[in-house]
Structures are given as C-alpha cells and as structure tokens.
Amino acid sequence: MSTLKSIPQGAVLLDTCAWIDAFVQPEKLNPAIRAYLDTHPELKLSAISPWEVAILVNRKRLELKVPIETWLQLSIDDANIVLVPLTPPIALESATLPGDFHKDPADRIIVATARKYNLPILTSDQKIHDYAHVDAIQSR
Fold first, then answer.
1. Domain residue spans in the chain?
2. What CATH number was assigned to the domain covering residues 4-138?
3. Residue 36 has pLDDT above 90, yes or no
4. Which of 8, 77, 123, 130 is deepest in the core (most CB within 10 A)?
5. Which helix (H) or strand (E) holds 138?
C-alpha cells in the first residue's frame, strides 16, 4: 500500500468510492488526498464507475443533490477526469486476475484497468489494498 508521500507524479485511477467521496462527501477523504485531488491534472476513472454510481442511486444507497446526469457531467467533465473505456483486454484481464481476489465484477474491472495501464488506484477498499498485484493508495 502506498501513502500520499509515495504517490507517483503520473496518472492515478480513482476507484468508485474515492470518486464519490471526492464529489459527494469530501470530508471522508484524508485532507492531504483532498488537496492532491484538487491539484492533480491526471485523474483517471474506469468506465464501470458511472455504472456503479447509477446502481447505487437507483437502489437508494446514494443520494445526490442534483440529477445523476448532471452529477456525472460535473464530476467527470468539469473535474478534467479522463474516463478509461472498458476494452476487451481489460474485460479479459478482469476475468483472469492473478492470485486471489474477490468476485465483485466492478472491483475486478477497476483492478484490471489499473493493471493494464500500470496505474495506482486511489481507494479506501481494504480488499484492493490487500491485493498484491496492484498498487493502492489509501484515500481515507
């Protein structure tokens, strides 16, 4: 697991929870991470994350102050986040991750995306932090 001091200067992949925290409940983020996100020009997001947010909103597990379409635009386009598409190689990687990783398909796609692009993942998810085959940075 990385700490903020060891975050690479290149791009970082936000997992869905870190993305939600950054734009819905920033008080949950480590203050240093909040400052980093405010100034970092290379934030990436897996294409599966908007789907995950839509599912959370639909199931009433996440409440947004604006319609989801508006929230997506504000939190992707206006924040200069680059959406990384779900490609066949990422889909294949997600199905064949090395070692032991849990079964959540969205997390598997996020981890596979990070592995394909050699990106650290900004996350509070302990299962991702415990996975030895990807670099994870603690967001909270």
1. 4-138
2. 3.40.50.1010
3. no
4. 123
5. strand 136-138
Question: In this predicted structure, what is the pLDDT of residue 3?
Answer: 46
Query: Would you say residue 127 has pLDDT above 80?
Result: yes
Contacts of 7 (CB under 8 A, 6+ apart): 36, 120, 137
CA 105 to chain centre: 14
Of residues 117, 56, 53, 121, the one with CA closest to residue 90: 117
Prediction pTM value: 0.91
- The per-residue DSSP string of 11-23 comes to -EEEPHHHHHHHH
- Exposed e or buried b per residue across 77-107, where buried means at least 16 C-beta atoms within 10 angstroms of its C-beta: eebebeebebeeebeebbeebeeebeeeebb
Q: Do residues 107 and 125 touch, judged by C-beta distance below 8 A?
A: yes
The pLDDT tens digits of the residues spanning 61-107 come to 999 999 999 999 999 987 889 999 999 999 999 999 999 999 999 99
Distance, first Cα to last Cα, the chain: 13
Phi first, then psi: what are they for 136, rounded to 5°?
-125, 140
